[in-house]
Amino acid sequence: MNLRKIKYITLIIIIFLTSKLFSQSQLVNCIPDTGSQSFDYPFQLNGTGTEWTISPYFEIYFWGGGVFADSVRAINDSVILAHIYIMPNADTGYKTVILGDAFLNYDSIPQGFKVFIWFPAIPNLLYPPNNSQNINQNPIMIWDSNKTVDSFKIQIAYDSIFAQTVFDTVVAQPPVQIRLGILELGQKYYWRVRGYNIKGTGPWSEIWNFRVKTTGINLISQNIPEKYELLQNYPNPFNPSTIISYKIKEGGNVKIVLYDMLGKEILTLVNQYHQPGYYQLKFSTASYNLSSGVYFYNLKVNNYSETKRLVILK
Questions:
Q1: Which DSSP string corresponds to 105-161?
Q2: How many CB atoms lie within 10 A of CB 18?
Q3: What are phi and psi of 304, to 5 degrees?
Q4: I need a labelling partner for 64 at 20 to 30 A (CA). Which of 77, 133, 184, 219 fits?
Q5: DSSP letter at 285?
Q6: Long-range CB contact pairs, 155-162, < 8 A, 24+
Q7: With contact defined as beta carbons under 8 Å apart, do 269 and 281 qualify?
Q8: 181-234 residue pLDDT tens
Q9: What CA–CA distance (Å, rounded) separates 233 from 228?
Q10: pLDDT confidence of residue 21
Q11: Distance (Å, rounded) from C-alpha 84 to C-alpha 207?
Q12: Residue 36 · residue 86 · CB < 8 Å
């Protein structure tokens, strides 16, 4: 056996014996043993019968998530210091505290730390993105959820000070879809969210804004029409926008397509499921490079099809 192999085996034996010695350590308690969401604390682990100074580094974990530790260091064989951070959305209740060392030894204090609820954290808005354009009239509003929040208030307004709100309601959890008929085509809106729980009311989120697309569908009436019908657009001729009205007798996927004089498909104006009712489609050429001339628009739903003519004048 050569010298290199002897040194290698000796090193393995030393590591093995050291880890065995260290693995006999016992955690006694932690200080503090409670904390609240959104706060951070200096943290101390106390142990007995340990050889903590042998390990070059340590890590502290809290089983259940939402609590994190850094700056973990052994002061001596009885004390380890760290700093812990409790996230605003950390699950409340007891958590097992786990200490790991460089030799993959682990020790724990079952249910050693308890997290208490605090006022709701500031929600993070996700969708529609801030300063976004061409948003649907019935957007799905999304922000980060929080199990320790009982409900959320969402507001949508014409102005950034929310003097003119168009949507103001309380919901359990996100997402929330805005129904058709609330948001206007081409209009810019501002929105914000805040949470409520047993501690009280949380702060408002940042204020984000979005603009609804200029072309869209309005549900005029949910009364069931006697027949399918595609109506003549008005005004006609037009520049830059016109209204296309249509009636849907039975629910189904509605498709409205714009064609040129040669029958070439130019744009798909509508392609989505509709419930029975009376609808209006606002079509604007502002977002499209369409030249003046005669065009045709065709409605297809279930087994029904109808075509009308429109004229663009620039």
A1: -EEEEEEEEEEEP-SPPPPPEEESPTTEEEE-SS-EEEE---TT--EEEEEEESSTT
A2: 16
A3: -100, 140
A4: 77
A5: G
A6: 155/191, 155/192, 155/193, 156/182, 156/183, 156/189, 156/190, 156/191, 157/189, 157/190, 157/191, 158/187, 158/188, 158/189, 158/190, 159/190, 160/190, 160/207, 160/209, 162/190, 162/192
A7: yes
A8: 788 877 899 999 999 999 999 999 999 999 988 777 878 888 999 999 999 999
A9: 16
A10: 43
A11: 30
A12: yes
Tokens of 121: 């954290």
Q: Distance between CA atoms of 228 and 271, rounded to whole angstroms?
A: 16
Element at 89 (helix H, strand E)? none
pTM higher than the cut 0.85 = no
In the chain, the domains with their CATH numbers are: 3-116 (2.60.40.10), 125-212 (2.60.40.10), 216-312 (2.60.40.1930)
What is 36-88 written as a DSSP string?
A: ETT-EEEEEEEEES--GGGSS-EEEEEETSSEEEEEEEESSSSEEEEEEEE-T
> ∠ CA 198-199-202 to the nearest 5 degrees?
110
Residues 6+ apart with CB under 8 A from 8: none
Residue 103 corresponds to which tokens in the numbers above? 């030799």
